[in-house]
Amino acid sequence: MSMSPLVIEALQVALLIGGAPLFIGWVRMLKCWTQNRSSASIFQPYRDLAKLLSKDVVLAGNASWIFRFTPYLVFGTVILAGAVVPMLYLKLPLAPSADVIVLVGLFSIARFFTALAGMDIGTAFGGMGSSREMLVASLAEPAMLMAIFTVSLANRSTSLSHIAGVIYSGQSLFKPSLSFAFIAYILITLAETGRIPVDNPSTHLELTMLHEAMILEYSGRHLALIEWAGMMKLFIFMALGSALFFPMGIASVDDPLMIVIAGAVLLLKLAASAVVLVLIETGLAKMRLFRLTEFLGSAFLMATLGMLSFFILE
Amino acid sequence: MDLQTAAQINSFLAAFVLLTAFGMLAQKRISSLIHLFAWQGFLLSVNTAIVGYLANKHHLYISSVLTLSLKVVLLPYILHVLVVRLKIRREVETLVNIPMTMLIGLALVIFSYHLTAPVRELSTLITRSTLAIALATVMIGLLMMITRKHAVTQIIGFLALENGLFFAATSATYGMPLVVELGVALDVLIAAFIFGIFFFHIHTTFDSLNVEQMARLKEED
């Protein structure tokens, strides 16, 4: 018995959309525990989203179409990105249509429009947030591409399914290049998803916020979509990391049982990666904005060292 | 442990030696710098033992133990005592900013890869690929000596450079003869003592270990 690949694809997207708030709830819960606070329910993000979706949108008088269009675009690109990453099944029907470079491009389209929307209204915070976000992006994107190129070189392909497949077959797991790329990937994930030490996701203090400053003018369903997309982005980065570096458990045949197992393994890996994320966030303080060049510079250095050690040592 | 895994561990350790070299290049605090130096020595000593196993050369075990006692325990201890006695807390500013230094370091790695490419073609040793990394470690040690203003960090740069040379010897020829290695080890030890004594003198004369102060030759002006 086998499932149609399209059904698996739809399942994966449904898991992404439905599971991302749960994942964020789990991260927040863990964070409360490490800080010795009692936490809100793990389902709290769903309630937040439902509340925002039921509220009216308040638009500034001079908001242009970019401002209204951006939430839908961000939500759409993130779902598209999530449909490409092999989370449940290696041979997803959409996977051949986009490789890792396109994936990075999808995220940067979302970021570009968010930055434009931040400047659209013309308030001071939006412009400041956009400028900071682009600073982080200009440093994080080359490092991200470099890390991904290292993995692609080591597996001789830029297709995500192929990379995961090669590592899956046990050929190349313990290599210096891959371990460097992995360290770089962790640093970039912190920067790209706006976690401590780069950005604090739960602050609205004007001096420290990066991503929050850009979306300060959004309300109602627009804000819900953007926040939901942010949750999914974290989910995708974790899933992408596990597909690139630890792809065990992803189904390679379209057997329903294997897909269920793959889903369970994915949830386990996400739960474990949330623990690592929370430990990093609890152990570090937020960095000054101008020290980010050093932080992301070291991510770039790690990725480049990975690439060099691929040429030198392998 | 078969030869294949041993070679793999060898290249892993080489990569981490390079990582510690870059870590030292980026580090501003002297105490963390000494820790990194000790880690580099530890990685080198493990690596030497593994190369000894790979090549079946028993004298490499002795030089591994020598590296462990000298570069992981004794030299960091001497440096630590020096830092405590001279009350150095933070290092002064570097000449070039740190991201720039890192980029120069990366360029040096590429350069040494290019430089050792002909040797890789000729050599038949299993460890031949780590030669480029050894040379890069030497160059990064040199870069550290150039870009730092503080005398103690310059010495750590020098010792890192010596680490690189030792690493190059192990990866290019399975180690120098034991007599030579004993001689070098003794030299480094004596050098560390002499540096220590000099530092005390410099500190009492100039009241600082910043080498820029030493450009002043006359006492009055």
Could you write a compact summary of the structure shown?
Chain A is mainly α. Chain A has eleven helices and no strands.
Task: Write up what this structure looks like.
The complex is a heterodimer of chains A (314) and B (221). Chain A is an all-alpha fold. Chain A has eleven helices and no strands. In chain A, helix 2 packs antiparallel against helix 9. Chain B has 221 residues and is mostly helical. The model of chain B has no long low-confidence stretch (mean pLDDT 86). Chain B is built from seven helices and no strands. The radius of gyration of chain B is 18 Å and the shape is globular. Classes of the chains: A mainly alpha (314), B mainly alpha (221). Chains A and B meet through helix 7 and helix 11 of A and helix 1 and helix 4 of B.
Instruction: Determine the N-to-C terminus distance of chain B.
Output: 67 Å
**Mean residue pLDDT of chain B:** 86
Roughly what is the average pLDDT of chain A, rounded to an integer? 88
- The percentage of residues in β strands of chain A lies in under 5%
Oligomeric organization of the protein chains: heterodimer
Strand-residue proportion of chain B: under 5%
Contiguous low-pLDDT stretches of chain B (5 residues minimum) are none
Measured by residues with Cβ under 8 Å of the partner chain's Cβ, the largest interface is:
A-B, 18 and 21 residues
